[in-house]
Write a structure and sequence with these properties.
With 224 residues, the protein is of the alpha+beta class. The chain is 18% helix and 27% strand. The structure holds 2-acetamido-2-deoxy-beta-D-glucopyranose (2 copies).
Length: 224
């Protein structure tokens, strides 16, 4: 009986760990440069281009040195470089972004990446950054970053960056997915299309219904 229990626990652990370590699929060849899907067919990732037709263009993206315009409601702009911009990233489990922040107050609003851990490198400026751990602790971990500093946002956790310096700020970040995904909390909750029933948000956020109506009427800028 004890032996059987041991085998069962071992089996459950093995299943759990194979799920825990799930990430972007590993390539089974040198590369699998993405081509667009045929209508009505879906794969977990993208179809591969014939390797004979692949060229350096499939692995290249220029211009990440160019500052982006941050005159928008949140004062930041994300320039993604993932499998959409570089089809050669398909199956490779990695991507990159550049983030520009307006002087004092430029914000990359609280958001999560459902499929990636992020390693952020500050090139210019001073950023107040943070993430919140999951329930029930919901512990806030923050740091003020300066040029040369690197900070990690673990996969799935809500995080943000806020420019607390007087000048523009610029950061680059590596993400552990070819397609990290972004869920901006305010946009998803108050700006969904169609809107979430206000009774749900009134109870969930313990707000007056008029505040929920006000929030649902706002324009939720997407900085990505
Ligand atoms: C796929 O199609 C979209 C829109 O039609 C286009 O912007 C994109 O560059 C295409 N990607 C590839 C890898 O061909
Ligand atoms: C930045 O964007 C704003 C708003 O769209 C625009 O008014 C402004 O001219 C742009 N600035 C530059 C330098 O392109």
């Amino acid at each position: 009986m004890e032996g059987l229990k041991f085998v069962l626990v071992f089996f459950l652990l093995a299943v759990a760990s194979s799920l825990t370590f799930a990430s972007d699929p590993s390539p089974l060849q040198d590369f699998c440069v993405a081509i667009n899907e045929t209508d009505g067919v879906f794969v977990n990732g993208k179809f591969c281009k014939d390797p004979k037709l692949v060229s350096e263009k499939d692995f290249f993206f220029p211009g990440l040195n160019i500052p982006r315009n941050t005159s928008n409601p949140v004062g930041s702009t994300v320039t993604p470089v993932n499998v959409v911009q570089i089809p050669g990233l398909n199956t490779l489990g990695i991507s990159l972004v550049r983030i520009d922040y307006a002087p004092y107050g430029g914000l990359n609003p609280p958001h999560t990446h459902p499929r990636a851990t992020e390693v952020l490198f500050v090139m210019e400026g001073t950023l107040y950054v943070g993430f919140v751990t999951s329930n029930p602790e919901n512990r806030l971990i923050t740091k003020v970053l300066n040029p040369g500093d690197v900070f990690v946002f673990p996969v799935g956790l809500i995080h943000f960056q806020f420019n607390v310096g007087e000048a523009n700020a610029v950061a680059f970040a590596g993400l552990s997915s070819q397609n990290p995904g972004v869920i901006t909390i305010g946009n998803a909750v108050f700006g969904s299309e169609p809107p979430i029933n206000p009774d749900v948000l009134t109870k969930a956020f313990q707000l007056d219904k008029s505040v929920v109506n006000f929030l649902q009427k706002q324009f939720w800028w997407d900085n990505n």
